[in-house]
Protein backbone atom coordinates (compact mmCIF):
# COMPACT_ATOMS: atom_id res chain seq x y z
CA UNK A 1 0.00 0.00 0.00
CA UNK A 2 1.30 3.46 -0.80
CA UNK A 3 2.59 5.69 2.00
CA UNK A 4 0.02 8.35 1.07
CA UNK A 5 -2.83 5.85 1.37
CA UNK A 6 -1.60 4.66 4.78
CA UNK A 7 -1.33 8.25 6.02
CA UNK A 8 -4.80 9.06 4.68
CA UNK A 9 -6.33 6.02 6.39
CA UNK A 10 -4.56 6.71 9.70
CA UNK A 11 -5.62 10.37 9.68
CA UNK A 12 -9.23 9.31 8.96
CA UNK A 13 -9.11 7.01 12.01
CA UNK A 14 -7.72 9.93 14.00
CA UNK A 15 -10.56 12.20 12.93
CA UNK A 16 -13.05 9.61 14.11
CA UNK A 17 -11.50 9.67 17.59
CA UNK A 18 -11.10 13.48 17.70
CA UNK A 19 -14.09 13.90 19.96
CA UNK A 20 -12.32 12.02 22.75
CA UNK A 21 -10.47 13.77 25.56
CA UNK A 22 -7.03 15.07 24.70
CA UNK A 23 -4.55 12.27 25.25
CA UNK A 24 -7.25 9.63 25.02
CA UNK A 25 -7.43 10.00 21.24
CA UNK A 26 -3.84 8.80 20.75
CA UNK A 27 -4.53 5.80 23.00
CA UNK A 28 -7.63 4.89 21.03
CA UNK A 29 -5.90 5.35 17.68
CA UNK A 30 -2.98 3.18 18.76
CA UNK A 31 -5.37 0.50 20.00
CA UNK A 32 -7.30 0.58 16.72
CA UNK A 33 -4.14 0.28 14.63
CA UNK A 34 -2.95 -2.67 16.74
CA UNK A 35 -6.29 -4.49 16.52
CA UNK A 36 -7.26 -3.87 12.91
CA UNK A 37 -4.15 -3.16 10.85
CA UNK A 38 -1.98 -5.91 9.47
CA UNK A 39 1.49 -5.92 11.12
CA UNK A 40 3.06 -5.08 7.75
CA UNK A 41 0.87 -1.97 7.49
CA UNK A 42 1.82 -0.91 11.00
CA UNK A 43 5.52 -1.38 10.29
CA UNK A 44 5.26 0.52 7.02
CA UNK A 45 3.56 3.56 8.56
CA UNK A 46 6.10 3.60 11.41
CA UNK A 47 8.94 3.51 8.88
CA UNK A 48 7.39 6.17 6.65
CA UNK A 49 6.88 8.52 9.61
CA UNK A 50 10.41 7.96 10.91
CA UNK A 51 11.83 8.75 7.47
CA UNK A 52 9.72 11.92 7.19
CA UNK A 53 7.87 10.73 4.11
CA UNK A 54 4.35 11.27 5.47
CA UNK A 55 2.47 13.88 7.47
CA UNK A 56 0.12 12.80 10.21
CA UNK A 57 -2.24 14.77 12.43
CA UNK A 58 -0.79 15.25 15.95
CA UNK A 59 -2.71 12.49 17.82
CA UNK A 60 -2.11 10.07 14.94
CA UNK A 61 1.59 10.93 14.92
CA UNK A 62 1.76 10.23 18.65
CA UNK A 63 -0.01 6.87 18.22
CA UNK A 64 2.28 5.81 15.36
CA UNK A 65 5.38 6.88 17.27
CA UNK A 66 4.22 4.71 20.17
CA UNK A 67 3.76 1.80 17.79
CA UNK A 68 7.34 2.27 16.66
CA UNK A 69 8.65 2.17 20.21
CA UNK A 70 6.70 -0.98 21.04
CA UNK A 71 7.19 -3.00 17.85
CA UNK A 72 10.10 -5.39 17.50
CA UNK A 73 12.71 -4.30 15.00
UniProtKB/TrEMBL annotation:
It holds the Pfam family FdsD. It comes from the Bacteria. This is Formate dehydrogenase. The lineage of its organism: Bacteria, Pseudomonadati, Pseudomonadota, Alphaproteobacteria, Acetobacterales.
